[in-house]
Amino acid sequence: MLTPGELAARLNRLVISILLVGHQKCDSAWRQPPRAIKHHSIWLVIKGKGTFTLNGTRYPAEPGKFFCFSPGMVVERETDPDQPLEYYFLRFHYTETFEEKEQWVYRSAAESPFPLEGMYTITNTPRLIYLFEQLNVLWKRRGHMTVMRRKILLLEFFMTLIQDFRAQKIAGDTTAAIESTQDYMIGHYQEPLTLEGLAQQAGLSVSHYSRLFKKYIGYSPIDYLTHLRVDRAKDLLVLSDYRLKSIAGSVGYTDEFYFSRIFKKVTGLSPRDYAKKHRFAPVTDRH
């Protein structure tokens, strides 16, 4: 898929002519058998459930799903009989027209594939529904001013779509950054990690990183790191005869007394008591 910026650049070069706008409520038996699409069209599902099959690949048709169909694409569509589909659709023609180095360039739709094709998930569905409603109302009217307004609304529709994709990408990048630092902590918990260093690794401010980490993971970054270290220490206390200082050092604590306080705060038991409870041989406090 193109980036939001690339998508905007491509759409900016197109002159789009609307052929048909509509709103459809399907009955429980609605089904369109496989057929080759003749016109470019976009569909926004707003209610119900169903299945759309595009060139042999099945996709869920439900609220928040946006479909772009291109000529030649073989499409089969059907509704769930218990939850009939409701959707808006728009059929269009376009040509690519832009100025480059003081020369106008013209390309037909056959020479310039439409930059959207297939299924997309939308998060700001209400705004797109509103714009589709307005387009549907204006489709029933005539006049040059109405045609101009339809063009403006369609551009606004695509702008909203691009903004939605961009917001999803930012959220996805942020989630990936949080998960990356989570993985880093799992692999480097024994090292002297700091909140500032983890936030820098994620490319976020300390406060923003801390807030998002807790939102996605359920712990603050430092609490998560502490639990990783304590969990590893539990294993060492139960399965080994290492000295307490060695165990503390192996999970990232240079001070075994501080480690003991942290361990008791998390588990409710001192390391010595935890070891006594879970294995026969007690851990030693010798240095």
Describe the secondary-structure layout.
Elements: H1 4-12, E1 14-25, E2 31-36, E3 40-47, E4 50-54, E5 57-61, E6 65-69, E7 74-79, E8 86-100, E9 103-107, E10 118-121, H2 125-139, H3 144-188, H4 195-202, H5 206-217, H6 221-239, H7 244-250, H8 256-267, H9 271-278
Antiparallel strand pairs: 1-8, 2-7, 3-6, 3-8, 4-5, 4-7, 6-10, 8-9
Helix pairs in contact: 1-3, 2-3, 3-4, 4-5, 6-8
What is this structure, in a nutshell?
By secondary structure, the chain is α+β, with helices and mostly antiparallel strands. It has helices spanning 4-12, 125-139, 144-188, 195-202, 206-217, 221-239, 244-250, 256-267, 271-278, and strands spanning 14-25, 31-36, 40-47, 50-54, 57-61, 65-69, 74-79, 86-100, 103-107, 118-121. β4 and β5 form a beta hairpin.
List keywords for this structure.
287 residues, alpha+beta, Jelly Rolls, Arc Repressor Mutant, subunit A, 6-stranded antiparallel beta sheet, 25% strand, elongated, DNA-binding, transcription regulation, AraC family transcriptional regulator, DNA-binding transcription factor activity
Characterization of this structure:
This protein has helices at 4-12, 125-139, 144-188, 195-202, 206-217, 221-239, 244-250, 256-267, 271-278, and strands at residues 14-25, 31-36, 40-47, 50-54, 57-61, 65-69, 74-79, 86-100, 103-107, 118-121. The chain is an alpha+beta fold and 287 residues long. Strands 1, 3, 6, 8, 9 and 10 form a 6-stranded antiparallel beta sheet that branches. Strands 2-7-4-5 form a 4-stranded antiparallel beta sheet, with no helix packed on it. The N and C termini lie far apart (59 Å). 23% of the residues are buried.
